[in-house]
Amino acid sequence: MEAYWKTPKAKDKSEKARASRLSKRGGLGAHCHRAGSRSYVKVQDVLKANNEDSSFIAVMRKTHQKSDGTFVDEKARLISEKYDEYMLERLAHIESSNADVLTMEPLTIEEKNEIYVKVAEISKQGRVFGVGSLQNEVPMTLDGSPVFTQATEQVETFNVRVTELETKLQRSRDETLLFQKRLETMEKILLSGSAGPSASTPSGGTSTSSQVPMG
């Protein structure tokens, strides 16, 4: 059997199978997790028993993240980073709105779950990545679409705000560049206008030479 997998035909078959696995989920590869035989509901129950965060993001990280912080699944890592980016943007927005006193109410489990669903997105099969058997906790409407409330609306608001800030920043850069070009043009005009004919030095001046006494 070992000799078979060393043949060109077997190697070619193995490479094609590997490429097929990697082509899944937009090149992110096959789904990997660390839950083992435990259901995601059981993982959530353990988090609750330990008085830990039991939201979707916490369950996803618990089942897809190693003890050193690295992820066993690329999609899980991307979703985790995107979730953190939203939370940082939310904090920045609150800080800018409360310049004197920073007041930030902690998010509820429901709000965290709504944000996670928005970040992770719903698949064509109507499932949310990383929550496994907790799918039934995703609030859905009769047509199968997720129910988004205030927390999700905030995500959209922040995304719009970021886009507006980027547009303003680019406009400011363009205006600064235009001002610099105008300033350089004015400097060239001033320099060319102040440069007159150079003063000529008188010629034909007499020079004295020392006489060497004759002996």
What does this structure look like?
The radius of gyration is 35 Å and the shape is flat. It has a domain of 133 residues. It is an all-alpha fold and 215 residues long. About 4% of the residues have low confidence. The N and C termini lie far apart (120 Å).
Structural class: mainly alpha
Which runs of at least 5 residues are low in confidence (pLDDT < 50)? Answer: 203-210
Q: For the CA atoms, what is the radius of gyration?
A: 35 Å
Average residue pLDDT: 76
Shape: flat
Spell out the helices and strands N to C: HHHHHH
Let me know the number of strands: 0
What is the CA–CA distance across the termini? 120 Å
Largest sheet geometry: none
Helix content: 40-55%
Per DSSP, the total helix count is 6
Strand residue content: under 5%
Pfam families: Transposase_24 (PF03004)
Protein name: Transposase-like protein
Region (Disordered): 1-31, 191-215
Biased composition (Low complexity): 192-215
